[in-house]
Input
Amino acid sequence: MTFLILLVAILVLIGLISWAKVHAFLAFLLVTIGVGLAFGLAPGPLMAAIYQGLGDTLGSVLLVIVLGAMLGKLVAESGAAQQIAAVLISAFGTRHIQWTMMVAGFIIGIPLFYNVGFVLMIPLIFSVVYKYRLPAVYVGLPMLASLSVMHGFLPPHPSPTALVAQFHANLGLTFLYGLLIAIPAIILAGPVYGRTLRGIVSVPLASFQVEALPESALPGKLNSFLSSLLPVLLLVGVLGLQAALPLNNAPTPALAFLAEPAVAMLVSVGVATFSLGTALGKPLPAVMEAYSASIKDVALILLIIAGAGALKQVLVASGVSADLAAGLQGTGLPPLLLGWLIAAVIRVCLGSATIAGLTAAGVMLPTVAQAHVNPNLMVLSIGAGSLVLSHVNDAGFWLFKEYFNLSARDTFRSWTMMETIVSVAGLAGVLLLDWILAI
Output
């Protein structure tokens, strides 16, 4: 009966969001209340669980996501992302254009959210297409594969950051494992698969060609790279020092403080405020205005994350989590594969990678605790599942189709297949890494 109620709840959630067009946050709240009452929670404990779920989830991810959005906004508006891409193209030329675009998307995708990175990089993709007379999909797909993987796999992007918090994973280790898995997945879905798409005819619409900043207005090359990658450099550097120094060493508490993702992001935003803002002649109020706009960009995402946290907490408070864990373990499927599968099913039904990942996390949380699954790998497995088979109910599908002016058939052949390759390759990487770590 537990599984039946949960299945009905997920189907109702899908129906409210997909068919009734109810906002995802409201849909989560309605379904959460219904689930709590169905599992026997009294109104008082039910609302207490909802408040706890909302607070705990937002409290653990709010700083990282908001500060990440601020950094990404400044990287975009200052022209640092455009400079990074231009430097890479200049260095490697057009002979290896797919690999160049893939690396550019990889670097830019770390601080930028997917939609921002997509719109920002479209002028660059189209300029390369027109200048060198190359097929648009062939040139653009590797970059977009990188952006998509960064969005689905790696913090500080919203879904993986929230998953790290829910599973009590280590953000630094999740990031490092994610890099190991993301790189081969991007290569397969980008340059390797992209070679089969040279024959797709795409004439991008002129109305979607955004004006790029003039070269004279761009920040310096070193400044662009360092400012954009500073969160990664800080986290990797601190983790390396922690591994190298003895535990009783005096700097250990300071390193532990710097290893906190929110602290690393705050330091990065502070540096970028100067390096990509005031040092380039931008008034401080203008930088703050950009930060305010970035918060508006992620406000709805934060509400969805909070709603998913409430559902998770109600499942825990109702005592259903233990039954759910035992039942899922009884399926015989490895937990990492099961997490990927649940996220994939919800992704196909709903279209949203973020909602798919967060909903799957709520279902898999008790199993991770009882089966002693590596929580860092579960974050990546669910993240991979949340990207599979993007189709007509996903905004990313239409973004790609309209910007590249493709038929639905060619969009399925290029975009949908690329996302599916990324997802399956990500799962394979997770399972392989799990096997290696178990040796």
User: Anything to note?
Assistant: Residues 76 and 346 are 31 Å apart (CA to CA). The two ends are 39 Å apart (CA to CA). The chain has one domain: 2-438.
